[in-house]
Amino acid sequence: MPGGPAPFPLRVDVGSSDMSQSGTNLDDSRLSIDSRRERERERDAPSSIEADGESRLSTDDSDVEAMGKLDVALLAKALKGATSGQRAKENDDMRRTAIVCAQGFMAAGTDDEGFIRARFRWFKQAKGWVIFASVASMGAIHRFGITDQSWLQAYLPDNQFVAAVTQDPEAAYAPAGAVFALGLCHAGAASKSEHSPLPQLLSYLQMATQTQSAPMLHATGLSMGLVSMGTHDITLFDDLWPVTLSADPDTGMGSALGCGLLMLGSVSKAQTEAGQPLQERLDMMLNQARDTEHERVARSCAVGLAFACYECRQDALPLIKTLENERRPQMREGAAWARALAFAGSGDLDQLRLLLRLGMNDSDDNVRRAAFIGVALLLADPEETVKALALSTRSYSPHIRSGAALGIGLACAGTGNRRALTLLRDLEGSLESYVVQSSLMAQALVLQLQPSPELPEDEKEAEEEEEKKGKKGKNGKKKKQKSRKERKQDKEDQIEKQKAEQSKPLPETPIYAAEFRKRLVDMLVNTRRNRDPLALFGARMALGLINASGGNVSFQLKTRLGFNSALGMVSACLFGQGWFWHPMMLTLCLGFSPMAFLPTDGSLSLSKRTQLACSAPKASYSYPAHYAERVKKKKAEVRNVKLSLRERSGTQEQDDMLIFIRRAAAHTAEAYKAEVALMETETQAPGDEGAQAEDDTTGVHTLRGPCRMLPHQADATTWAEDSPVYPVYKNRLTGIVVVTHKEGQE
Prior knowledge:
746 residues, single chain, 5% strand, ARM-type_fold
C-alpha cells in the first residue's frame, strides 16, 4: 500500500496476483438461472470474462500508482470450503452471503467488480436469496453511479422475464437482486431528477405483479422506497400498498419497508389539515401491523411507522405510545425504533431513560436488541453512547449485550475509541455465538480508518513456534488424539488464558487494530477451529467493514457540520433488520462517508495545485498492510552419504575445490560492499545530510490534493505558505473545499 493518502474518486486496483483461482473448475450444471439466459448475459456484459475466471478489467496505470488497493486476498481465502447435507447447505448459504456482503462493503463506491468477475462461476453457483445478494452487492459497488448504468443492464429484467419466471420461478432471484442494486445505487438521490429510476421501477412492479414473483416484488418495494425516500408521494404509496396485503410474507415485508421509507418523517406533516391523506396511510400501516398473520409483515409495518417518526420529536409520541401498548412484540420493537428515530441525535435524557426501560423490561429478545441499538441513534455521540451502554455490555441477557455491541459500533465508527474497544473485546469472549458476531462487526466499525502497523517479528516467530508445537510432539511425530478429559482440560485452560488476556490493559489503538486483523485472519484461515457459522459470519462481515471502500470511508450518523444524516440513521435501522434477512445488511453502505480533501475551483472541477503542510507522522494515517498468505518453506534437500571410501575418493578433490571457491566469493563480496560504502561516503554532498536531518527533525511533509484526509490527520495539517491557491472558507481541510488563486482569480 502507498504510505501517503490516496486521491479520489475511489477507484482501486485489484491485480490478478491478489486473485485466487477458486471456483474456476466448477460444474456449470449447478447454475441457478437458465443457461441460455446466462450465456446471453455473459455475452452482453460490460466486461468480458475469460473461461478460466481471470478478470480482464482494465485500470488506468496513472491512478494505480497512487491509489489504494482492495485487500481481497484474505476474502478470497474465505471462499474455500465444501459442505454437504441440509444443515451444511444452510451454513454454506450463510457463508456465501457474508462473503458477497463483505466484498460489497470493501468495494463500495469504487466501481470495481474485479472480485466478482474473477470468480464469476463461483457466484453463479449460488441459488435463491444468495444469488440475490450477490447481484445486489453490485449496487453498493456502484454507489452514486446514477449516470451510467451499463454495468447493470445485463442483469435487469427484460422482455423475456415473464416467460422465464413462469417456466422457472428460480430465475427471478438474479433480476430481483439487480433491481435491489438499482435502489441501493440511487438511494437518497432526487427522485424527480432526469436520472430517476422510478419509471423503470414501476414497469418492474407491473412485471412482478403479473408473475407474482416474490423476490421481484420484494426487491421492487424496497428499491422504490429507497429511491423515493422522504418524498411523501401518495400516488406511489398507493401503487405499493396492494403488495403489502398479499399472502406471501416476503413480498409484504419489502413493500411495507418501502412504504415506510417513502413516508420518512411524515408524522408531523400528517397532523396538519393538509396532511390528512398522509394520516390515512399511516393508519393503514398500523392496522395492517395489527391484523396480519405474518410476523415479518407486522415487523416491517412497525419499522415503517418508525421511519415516519424520524425527527418528529413530540409529534411522534402518541404513535410511539400506541405501539408500545400493543400485544404483538413486533409492534413493540417498532416502538423502540420509533423513539430512537423520532429523537435521533437529540441526546434527550428523558427519552433515553424510557428507551432503556423498554429494553430492560420487555420480555421479547428482539425488542431488547432493537432498544439498545436505538440508543446509538438517539445519542449519536461516541462518548455519550459508550457511557450509556457500558453497563449493558455486562447484562445477563445475551440479546441486550448483542444490541449494546452494535450500538457502540455504530456510534463510535471510525473513532478508534479505546473505551469502546475495551468493552467490545470483552464481549468477543462470550459463549453466545451471535454476541461474538456483533462484537466482531462492532470492533470493525470502530477500527475503520485506523492505522495498523505490522506486529514485531519476534512475536510472529513465537506464535509460529507455538502453533508448530501444538501440531507435533517433541519427536516431530503427530500427536495422538486426546481423550475427552484432556480435551475438556484444554478447553478450560483456553478459557483461563482468554480471561487473562482480557484482563490486560488495551494496547494503543494502532497496535490493537493490528491484533484484531490478525484474529480475523486466524478465524477465516483456520476455520476448523471456529466451526460456529454465526461467529464466522461476523468475522467475514468485519473484514468488509474494516476495509470499507478500500479504507477510505467510515460509517457516520451525522454530517461534518453536526446535523443528522438521514441516510446514516436509516441505514443503521435497516442494518438492524439484517438479523432477520441477511441481504438487508448491504444497506449499511448508504451511511458511508468518504474521508477526503477535495479542492475544487469555481467551476467545480478538481484543483491539483493545492499544497498542504502535514506534521502528523506518515504511519498515523497510512493504509494498513494487506494480508499475505504464508509461504511454506521448502525443506533443505538431504543427500545420501556414501560410506564407501572407494566411491568418495573420486569426488574429494571436487568438494575441496568447491569449498575454496565459495570462501573466495564470500570474501570478495564483503570487500566489494566495503569499497562501495567508502565511495558513497566520499562522494556525498555536504548539505545532503543536514537536509535529511532537518526533515526528520521537523517531521513536516507536503500533501497535494485531492487526497485522503483522516480526522486526526486534519488536526495536524495546515495550508502551506507557498501554496498557489487558498480556501474560500478558512482552515477547511475536509470534504469539498472551494479554492481560489492568490491573485484573486478563480
